[in-house]
Task: inverse folding
């Protein structure tokens, strides 16, 4: 038996946060790391530094916005797809899927959807529908799959420090939560909530009003496990020390450990 550590991290700008990313990779050594919000074009992705840290990578960049990547320790991930099927007209870099270390992993950056109501919220829900449809096919394949990323959804009131100031936010809307619940009802397991069923666990603290210092956080970074992987979940957590670094992302890396054959 061996353990496989899979992490997701909204880096919020890979060029400006590269030293933080490299420090995290060295200290925590995930086997697979899914990154979001690269905010860099393909040619701006620091592949040489990442290879020097012992990781292969695939990525889909975009100038100034979005962008996703999958890193794998000691190997190059085998790309399966970029973008969601049926959504080929979408020019935003938000979905990347690959095989690495015996699992299929997706790195996704679901649209924020603010302000709502409006076109951005409509785009969020439409993207979500494409994702739900694709996720159903992945689940039925019976492959071991991890859907990891920034979902921009607060699943329940237990996943937020206080709902009052977020009631109009797209992350908290009933439609957003209903889409996430439909994913779980397909048969996916929310790994962090499964491991911490009764605890308030946060993955994001915005830069305003001392939310980090007050632990006024949200849980919006999720790792969903297929039926074959859910029983293998052994550990999970949030690398809060990364959020405490100077000039860091407003997200902290979130990870799971799976017991593999």
Result:
């Amino acid at each position: 038996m061996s353990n496989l550590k899979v992490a997701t991290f909204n880096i919020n700008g890979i060029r400006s946060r590269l030293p933080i990313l490299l420090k995290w990779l060295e200290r925590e050594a995930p086997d697979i790391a899914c990154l979001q919000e690269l905010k860099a074009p393909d040619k701006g992705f620091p592949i040489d530094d990442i290879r020097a840290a012992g990781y292969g990578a695939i990525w889909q960049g975009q100038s100034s916005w979005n962008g996703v990547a999958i890193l794998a320790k000691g190997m190059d991930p085998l790309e399966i797809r970029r973008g969601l099927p049926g959504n080929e007209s979408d020019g935003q870099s938000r979905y990347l899927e690959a095989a690495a270390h015996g699992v299929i992993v997706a790195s996704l950056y679901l649209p924020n959807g603010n302000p709502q109501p409006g076109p951005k919220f409509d785009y969020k829900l439409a993207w979500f529908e494409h994702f739900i449809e694709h996720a159903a096919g992945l689940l039925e394949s019976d492959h071991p799959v991890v859907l990891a990323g920034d979902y921009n959804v607060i699943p329940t009131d237990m996943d937020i420090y206080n709902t009052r100031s977020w009631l109009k936010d797209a992350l908290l809307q009933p439609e957003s939560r209903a889409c996430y619940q439909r994913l779980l009802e397909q048969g996916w397991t929310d790994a962090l909530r499964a491991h911490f069923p009764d605890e308030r666990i946060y993955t994001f603290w915005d830069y305003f009003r001392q939310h980090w210092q007050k632990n006024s956080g949200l849980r919006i970074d999720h790792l969903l496990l297929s039926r074959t992987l859910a029983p293998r979940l052994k550990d999970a957590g949030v690398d809060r020390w990364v959020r405490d670094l100077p000039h860091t992302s407003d997200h902290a890396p979130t990870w799971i450990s799976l017991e593999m054959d």
Observations:
- Residues 2-260 form a domain with the Deoxyribonuclease I; Chain A fold (CATH 3.60.10.10).
- The mean pLDDT is 97.
- The chain has six helices and twelve strands.
- The CA atoms of residues 113 and 121 lie 4 Å apart.
